[in-house]
Amino acid sequence: MGKKQFKAESKRLLDLMINSIYTHHEIFLRELISNASDAVDKLYYKAMTEHLDGISREDFAIDLVIGKEDRTLTVRDNGIGMTKEELENNLGVIARSGSLNFKKDMAADEEHKAEDVDIIGQFGVGFYSAFMVSDKVTVKSRAYGSDEAWCWESEGADGYTIEPCEKEGVGTEIVLHIKPATEDENFDEYLDSYRIQAIVKKYSDYIRYPIKMDMERSRLKEGSDKEYETYTENVTLNSMVPLWRKNKSEITPEEYNQFYKEKFYDYEDPARVIHSSTEGAATYNALLFIPARAPYNYYTREYEKGLQLYASGVLIMDKCPDLLPDHFSFVKGLVDSQDLSLNISREMLQHDRQLKVIASRLEKKIHSELANMLFNEREKYEAFYKNFGLQLKYGVYNEFGRNKDTLKDLLLFPSSYEDKPVTLAEYAGRMKEDQKYIYYACGESVEKIRKLPQTEAVLDKGYELLFLTEDIDEFALKMLHDWDGKEFKSVAAGDLDLETPEEKEEAQKQAEENKDLFAFMKETLGDKVSAVRLSKRLKTHPVCLASEGELSLEMEKVLNAMPTDNKVKASRVLEINESHPIFATLAGLFQSDKDKLADYTKLLYDQALLIEGLSIEDPVEFSNQLCRLMSE
Ligand code: ADP
Which of 302-306, 345-349, 545-549, 574-578 is predicted least confidently? Predict the structure, then answer.
């Protein structure tokens, strides 16, 4: 039978594996054992849910066999097995797309090689790692319910063969033909039972089925107290206690990190590990992780939230979304509960009371961990927030603010107070005695906001200002409405309420005096603005826009950027600075040249739009007007 070719992507990946870019070759064993364990899980799950006869948990095992003479290492399981099609599909192609590019980049990057970033397994290429240590791999498999077995064999990148074969019992047997040792690489170590035992202990100790191997032992000869004899014993190498069932005190940080990276396909240690067990209303063990970095697709629709769900140690769902609220969707991990039935269907799970209790407990736990991190490890929290803060802010806003009270103490915003982001509680705690509001300003970046004319008055008063740089920010604050009774106020809001009663009276008087001027300007601008008036917030800048009502200019921008036809418009007020020389000019023109005043009014309005980062209606006209002015 002729050789079949690997799909192009797989072939290139195999090349990389064979010329192994990873220095930790030993992890091939972890990958194969984890596949074997998954295969056993699948059969066990099937047996439980379909009430299959003749299958009992005690019979499951993963066997390792070392063949010193023919330089082979065999990994054998009695799991679900693979049909001919499955052998071809699973071992002939790469499961997850995008993996190859990533690996190519890694290969090109010598630095990474040195760092030995552990990414195998991240993209479902585990099986291929066998080729790091083997020059030939033979896979014999018999699928559950089938009476024929198939043998898949490959010597690497030039393809594979697949033929019928004999195999007793259901399951898969993978024979690695270990490469000869070279000067650089001592592949012989993979034929040494002590070395294999150590590798299993290191990476696969918690696998829940026994991993067995023959080990040579020595004992005193019978009837002698000096003479020893060697004998062979079939030993279980792993302790089989899943990590999450162990006591926290028995687990090292490395073990947690290793477990996380392997199981949740990350190549960085997690930022936080949350390990909790509870009894009472719900009995479960949970092992949760907060990733150090947002996955590349985190803020897209592609990202699927969820935790692995085990019922008494058996995996029943790989990504159970109901266990995590959306605002904590970045959490990875698993829950193992004795209270759930193995037979439960996905549909039923959604309505399961027990699951709801667990989910609500987990939410509280995650919240308290984050709060703890915020108060005790501020820098770490800030790093976390850079990655996932946006999600928390969406959480405040979404579902009509249902979760806002849970989340508000976890928010951070850049502030004029210091170079680090601050919490709302911190802001409120240092508000001036006469300060009524929590002030904020919106813009693209802190630098741009600092330059906004509208911020002058608030900063001049010595009040702290929050800088809102993300689209969701103002929506979230509006949803919160206030912190401890202190309302949030945009520096661009209609009434900032910053003046003393005397100043107010003075302003009132001025407004009255210039009533006709502003009425003319408003008429010139038509329904572009709802009013023109003297500004109470400007100190040095000539003009700015303010908004009246609930909808701010910033919100207008955000909403109008969305792909819907419902465009909104904030109610704009053009504000003029009375102490700026331009004001005297306007007042003069009102007496002497109304046409010119109309031109200036339009120009000022356009300038105010530009400052806001809004586009002007007629840029050509704007430019022409400016030129006319320049040539006067
Ligand atoms: P991953 O395990 O990450 O999906 P692998 O390349 O390691 O990627 O394996 C590809 C697929 O081959 C697995 O998803 C599984 O369906 C199948 N497979 C691998 N090893 C076994 C095994 N021992 N028994 C049954 N199926 C297996």
Answer: 345-349
pLDDT of residue 9: 67
Of 31, 38, 120, best ligand 1 pocket probe by most atoms within 8 Å of the beta carbon: 38
Q: Are residues 424 and 545 in the same domain?
A: no
The 10 Å Cβ neighbour count of residue 578 is 17
User: Is the distance from CB of 80 to CB of 42 less than 8 angstroms?
Assistant: yes
Per-residue pLDDT reduced to its tens digit, 210-220: 999 999 988 88
Q: Does a structural domain hold residue 392?
A: no
Q: How far is the CA of 35 from the centre of ligand 1 (A)?
A: 5
For residue 53, the CA-to-ligand 1 centroid distance in Å is: 25
Secondary structure of residue 188 in the 3-state scheme:
helix
> How far is 514 from 529, CA to CA, in rounded Å?
18
Q: How many Cβ atoms are within 10 Å of 579's Cβ, its own excluded?
A: 12
Cβ partners under 8 Å of residue 230, min gap 6: 216, 217, 218
Mean pLDDT of 125-141: 88
Which residue minimizes the CA distance to atom 12 of ligand 1?
90
DSSP assignments along 418-441, one per residue: -SS-B-HHHHHHT--TT--SEEEE
Which CATH number does the domain housing residue 577 bear?
1.20.120.790
pLDDT digit string (tens) for 185-243?
A: 899 999 999 999 999 988 788 788 999 999 998 888 888 888 899 999 999 999 888 88
Q: How far is the CA of 90 from the centre of ligand 1 (A)?
A: 6
When pLDDT is averaged across residues 295-323 and rounded to a whole number, the result is: 88
CATH code of 227's domain: 3.30.565.10
Give yes or no: residues 255 and 337 share one domain.
yes
Is residue 217 situated within a structural domain? yes
Residue nearest to atom 17 of ligand 1 (CA): 90
Judgement on whether residues 542 and 615 belong to the same structural domain of the protein: yes
For ligand 1, atom 16, name the residue with the nearest CA.
90
How far is ligand 1, taken at its centre, from the CA of residue 127, in Å? 7
Q: Is 5 inside any structural domain?
A: no
Please tell me whether residues 478 and 626 are part of one structural domain.
no
- Whether the per-residue pLDDT at 99 is higher than 60: the answer is no
Residues with CB under 6 A from ligand 1: 31, 35-36, 39, 77, 79-80, 82, 90, 95, 124-127, 172
The boundaries of the domain holding residue 483 are 413-490
How much distance in Å is there from the Cα of 309 to the middle of ligand 1? 20
For the chain, the domain total comes to: 4
